[in-house]
Design brief:
Elements (H helix, E strand, L loop, with lengths): L1 H11 L4 H20 L6 H16 L6 H24 L4 H17 L4 H21 L6 H22 L4 H28 L5 H29 L3 H29 L6 H4 L16 H19 L6 H11 L12 H25 L9 H19 L11 H23 L5 H9 L7 H29 L3 H18 L4 H18 L5 H24 L5 H27 L7 H18 L1 H4 L6 H30 L11 H20 L6 E3 L3 H4 L12 H24 L3 E3 L2 H5 L1
Parallel strand pairs: 1-2
Helix pairs in contact: 1-8, 2-3, 2-7, 2-19, 3-6, 3-7, 4-6, 4-7, 5-6, 5-16, 8-9, 8-10, 8-12, 9-10, 10-14, 10-15, 10-25, 12-13, 12-14, 16-17, 16-21, 17-21, 18-20, 18-21, 19-20, 22-23, 22-25, 22-26, 23-25, 25-28, 26-28
Length: about 750
């Protein structure tokens, strides 16, 4: 029971990164307050120390402990200089405002220098803001500089002692999260297996959601391979095994979807989020097969969820499931149902490979002949794996330069407008303007982020009023509530920017109470300044070197299509007998490009977007691209097996059969760039390999699976033509035969 609960926690927070961020930040704040309080410092020093400790902790995002320590050490003089300059320029209004704008420009421009530049820029800006917030003056500057030093020291203690995180530890927890999400996906597959006609839509939604979560965790592992593994060969091996497990689990879900339909329902359609389930697909699997499928899916889930379990019972389960790969004891039933059992066998092999590479487990005493063969295949792949930039933009075209200019202009507008609203708290508008530019790249993204921040702020004002009334003048109760809000802010930040803004504003209501400046008018002013800052950010993004959402999404769409063509072409080359390098790495680049596109389309798909037609088109295009990415990943994974897998042989016909797909992907990309092009349709991929055409009588089961992926990929690419308005031309008989 405890293990299942912990697995749920691990699955909901892969690597426990959000939990660690929340604990580390609240720990740094608590330590700072604990060190400062015995010295009898005022509340303003406590507030300044708490905010500085928070900034010093969350600003540093480097993955290795050494670079983290260097950045933290450099951050102290940067923060001290920023606080001192804010204090010295307080009475020089024009000079102070000009410096603030220059500081903002430098903080954003510093992102081009990587994580360290981004962290130091954020520390400089935020500590300047702290000096304005608590009202540091020349007379008490030395005391506040001491507070800053204490905060940085406590941040270091929290980071390296109280809540330490090593790359190996994070990687270990990510692996555990991957297994937990793999088991949850199998839960969803069991739910789909048993779902009646009224429940199938919900079951399918759960299947899609958990497939996406498994994919998210696989990408997170991909991002940690370099730091979490001892060498490049180990990194490639882990990448291979994780990809195997992800692809076979996703394929198992698609096979189950097909088996539910007496009409062999089109899994291309079923794979699209929100797509209706055909009437045939609402029928559960036949009763005679369902019990056996349920038993074997449950057994597979045990193998995936409990990697440390041992014994003859586990070996029996593993041997039985792996036997399906060789048609051993395959239950009677329709072909679609038998394909599910074969898929279970392939998934069991992937789980075995995952266990070997992640745990070094070699409990092979009770192996059956099929299990021994699977181990030999995995060992051969391991041996093979062990053996085996884009042009820089310059000037105003560089994203960091453009963003820095935009935020400088927006902040200048926010300073002027903020002064009209309040000569004392104008900096809230500047803070909002600066924040909406973080991790955004188009006007639409900035608009959505500004909207979310404003919504969270309005809700946070209500919460701040309630909390302020509860704590009154009880200082330590107030700081306790602030710590809870800070933890919630960091725990929810990756999930919802609105929630993060809510907790920030609620905490500020309590801090204003501590500083004896709380009133309803202050919190209302906070909403007004937030709205002003968001508006200034949008205006600057729209007028200064604008990157419109259409342009941004077209650029990313073109990148996705280029990666898709690269992966598909490379996989076909290797499946046809040639050699292609780094197929799985190319597939991950495709996944990352697709994730970037998904983020960029949020302004188009947001619920408040009035452009319903564009919203539906964007969702449909992204869904089709997700389908394309799945089949391309599957082709790449199969091609990677080719050199070492005894049951997979190169088939020269596949290169010719897939040529049209690659050319069509290129045609869609050319159309996105504005070049004249057209997509070609013709005979099905399977018919292009009809017996005797290339002097080969027929193809085997593995080639048949490759053909199914190619057929789905072909359909999905042609499907992109309609929403993107790409002309479609039917091949003539002579063209199809050429």
């Amino acid at each position: 029971m405890v293990r299942r609960v912990w697995d749920r926690v691990a699955a909901s927070d892969p690597g426990l990164l959000r939990l660690a961020a929340g604990l580390r930040t609240t720990g740094a704040i608590a330590l700072t307050l604990g060190v400062l309080a015995p010295w009898g410092v005022g509340v303003s020093h406590l507030v300044a120390g708490a905010i500085t400790a928070m900034v010093a902790t969350f600003a540093i995002q480097e993955k290795r402990r050494g670079p983290q320590g260097v950045t933290l050490a450099l951050g102290l003089p940067v923060a001290s200089a920023s606080v001192a300059l804010a204090t010295l320029l307080h009475n020089l209004v024009v000079a102070g405002d000009v410096f603030f704008v220059v500081l903002i420009f430098g903080a954003v421009y510093g992102r081009r220098f990587g994580d360290r530049g981004h962290a130091l820029g954020m520390i400089a800006f935020q500590t300047h803001f702290v000096a304005l917030f608590v009202g540091v003056r020349t007379g008490n500057l030395p005391g506040f500089l001491g507070t800053v030093a204490v905060a940085f020291a406590c941040s270091a203690l929290a980071r390296f002692v109280l809540v330490p995180q090593t790359s190996a530890g994070i990687f270990h927890r990510l692996r555990r999260a991957f297994r937990a999400r793999l088991a949850q996906l199998m839960d969803a597959q069991l739910e789909l297996l048993d779902a009646g006609p009224q429940d199938v839509e919900r079951a399918l939604a759960h299947l899609r959601e958990r497939t996406a979560r498994l994919h998210e965790t696989a990408l997170m592992i991909q991002g940690r391979l370099e730091e979490g593994t001892p060498d490049a060969a180990s990194a490639r091996l882990v990448q291979r095994r994780v990809a195997d497990a992800e692809i076979t689990a996703e394929r198992l879900g698609l096979l189950l979807l097909t088996a539910r339909s007496v009409e062999r329902a089109d899994t291309l359609t079923l794979h699209l989020p929100g797509a209706p389930v055909p009437e045939g697909g609402r029928l559960p699997v036949r009763d005679a097969a369902r019990d056996t499928l349920r038993r074997d899916l449950s057994a597979l889930q045990v193998l995936a969820r409990e990697p440390d379990a041992a014994g003859s019972s586990r070996a029996y389960l593993r041997n039985r499931l792996l036997g399906y790969r060789d048609e051993e004891n395959l239950p009677d039933g329709p072909t679609a149902v038998q394909d599910v059992f074969r898929g279970i066998g392939e998934a069991a092999r992937a789980v075995l490979g995952l266990r070997i590479v992640l745990d070094g487990a070699r409990d092979d005493a009770d192996d059956s002949a099929e299990t021994a063969r699977s181990r030999e295949e995995l060992d051969a792949e391991d041996a093979a794996l062990e053996a085996e930039e884009e042009p820089e933009q310059r000037g105003l075209a560089r994203p960091t330069t453009r963003a820095a200019l935009q935020v400088a202009v927006g902040s200048s507008l926010a300073i002027v407008g903020g002064e009209f609203l309040s000569s004392q708290r104008w900096y809230w508008a500047v803070l909002t303007c600066w924040i909406v530019f973080i991790n955004t790249a188009s006007t639409g993204e900035i608009l959505v982020k500004g909207y979310r921040r404003l919504l969270g702020t309005v809700l946070g004002v209500v919460a701040g009023l309630v909390l302020a009334g509860l704590v009154g003048r009880h200082t330590w109760t107030a700081f306790g509530l602030v710590l809870l809000c800070v933890f919630a802010m960091f725990y929810t930040a990756p999930l919802s920017y609105t929630l993060m803004s809510f907790f920030v504003t609620a905490a500020l209501g309590v801090l204003y109470t501590l500083l004896h400046t709380f009133s309803l008018s202050v919190l209302v002013l906070r909403v007004e300044e937030t709205a002003l800052g968001a508006a200034c950010g949008v205006i600057a993004a729209a007028l200064v070197l604008p990157v419109h959402t259409d342009r941004r999404t077209n650029e990313l769409l073109e990148a996705v299509l280029d990666h898709l063509a690269d992966v598909t072409s490379g996989a076909l080359d290797q499946l046809s007998g040639a050699r292609a390098d780094d197929l799985l790495e190319r597939a991950r680049e495709l996944d990352q490009a697709l994730a970037d596109l998904l983020g960029a389309t949020q302004p188009l798909t947001h619920p408040v977007s009035p452009l319903r037609g564009r919203k539906d088109t964007a969702r449909y295009v992204v869904a089709l691209l997700e389908t394309c990415a799945y089949h391309a990943r599957s082709l790449a994974a199969t091609a990677e097996l080719l050199p070492t897998h005894p049951s997979i042989a190169a088939d020269p016909r596949l290169r010719g059969a897939g040529t049209r797909i690659v050319e069509n992907v290129g045609a869609v990309a050319a159309h996105v760039r504005g070049e004249p092009s057209a997509v070609r349709t013709g005979a099905s991929i399977a018919s292009l390999l009809r017996p005797g055409r290339y002097g080969t009588p027929r193809y085997g089961r593995v080639t048949d699976r490759v053909l199914r992926h190619l057929q789905r990929l072909d359909e999905a690419v042609v499907g992109l033509a309609r929403p993107l308005k790409v002309p479609v031309k039917a091949e003539t008989g002579d063209a199809a035969a050429s």
